[in-house]
Design goal:
There is one protein chain. The chain is an alpha/beta fold. It has nine helices and 16 strands. The strands form four sheets. The protein has an eight-stranded parallel β-barrel, surrounded by five helices. A four-stranded antiparallel sheet has the order 5-6-14-11, with no helix packed on it. Strand 8, helix 4 and strand 9 form a beta-alpha-beta unit. Helix 3 packs parallel to helix 4, helix 4 runs parallel beside helix 5 and helix 6 runs parallel beside helix 7. The chain is globular. The structure holds flavin mononucleotide.
């Protein structure tokens, strides 16, 4: 059982620890549960699901890039009907909250998937607004109005907390965050991957078949942390999941101080599927070093100059 001081509150959601396994890095959770220890996590988010099957992009779709990695998976998923049949029975018995993640091309798509996820039993829906939108090739989360429409469509369709997952590439992250809260988001996940690119010098081809992809891992931390800090300052009291480049307990504390109430682990789990236990231990040590008894004392407690 997690120590009492680790209990986290994310809006209306209570989590036994502030650690969350990030969408797309733990499959649909049950596969990863075979190799990981679920106890250090407050929640785990399943891979994003669309209304119908998406086959994803051709290989290569993952590549190392400096201290992080590039991915251009293209949200390969079986579609909500098949997902519900295959995944729902498998995630039901797991000893962790499994959240669903919805993706689509229109607000109605997102709402349809969210309804399917909730029927399948997920207690929380994260809305992936930070994937390429196939209608015109841009992400919903770069535009405040379009983000609000999607979140409003989802929030009015389901009776569970809805989170908006945003992009560090948004020009006005506070404006997009405010629009999502207006639309009915109960929390924000800050952030998804940043747009990135790399070239293989031996072939002179892009590292990914799709060219531009999502950059994640340690190099992303400063970018996502900036989003958390600015949104928390501009919109005090907002429930935020910090996400991007976390590899240690100290990274988790940094996100909490910037204003996150919970913190997601992504790329670190690909190389180290059991990283949650280590990071939880480091977090407990860091709480002692910071002389605090609970993580809630750290949320937004960055000291101004
Ligand atoms: C291979 C891979 C697949 C991902 N798939 C999804 C996805 O389906 N839905 C989503 O919301 N985020 C997805 N993400 C983004 C992660 O959830 C996370 O937001 C991002 O990687 C930044 O965190 P990190 O630096 O800790 O990895 C994916 C990331 C990676 C590396």
């Amino acid at each position: 059982m997690a120590p009492d001081g680790l209990t986290a509150r994310l809006g209306s959601i209570e989590l036994r620890t502030p650690l969350i396994a990030a969408s797309g890095t733990v499959g649909s959770v049950w596969e990863w549960a075979d190799v990981a220890d679920l106890a250090p996590y407050g929640a785990a988010v399943a891979k994003s699901v669309a209304p119908v099957e998406w086959k994803g992009r051709p290989a290569p779709r993952l590549a190392p890039a400096g201290p992080g990695m590039l991915n251009g998976v293209g949200i390969q998923n079986p579609g909500i009907e098949a997902w519900s049949e295959m995944m729902a029975p498998r995630i039901r018995g797991l000893d962790v909250q499994v959240w669903g993640s919805a993706v689509g091309e229109t607000p109605d798509d997102f709402a349809l998937v969210a309804k399917g996820l909730v029927s399948a039993g997920v207690p929380v829906v994260e809305v992936n607004l930070s994937c390429p939108n196939l209608e015109d090739g841009t992400m919903f989360s770069l535009d405040a109005d379009r983000s609000r429409h999607v979140i409003a469509a989802v929030a009015s369709s389901v009776g569970v907390p809805v989170g908006a997952k945003l992009s560090p590439n948004a020009e006005d992250i506070v404006g997009v965050a405010r629009a999502c809260l207006d639309g009915g988001a109960g929390f924000l996940t800050l952030t998804n991957t940043a747009l990135g690119f790399g070239i293989d010098l031996s072939t002179r081809r892009p590292l990914l078949s799709g060219g531009v992809g999502g950059y994640s891992g340690p190099g992303l931390k400063a970018l996502s942390l900036r989003c958390v800090y600015e949104v928390a300052r501009a919109l005090p009291g907002t429930a935020i999941v910090g996400c991007g480049g976390v590899t240690t307990g100290a990274d988790v504390v940094e996100y909490l101080l910037a204003g996150a109430s919970a913190v997601a682990l992504g790329t670190v789990l690909l190389a180290e599927p059991r990283a949650g236990r280590r990071i939880e231990r480091e977090l407990i040590k860091e709480l002692r070093r910071q002389r605090v008894g609970s993580i809630s004392e750290l949320v937004g407690a960055v000291t101004p100059w």
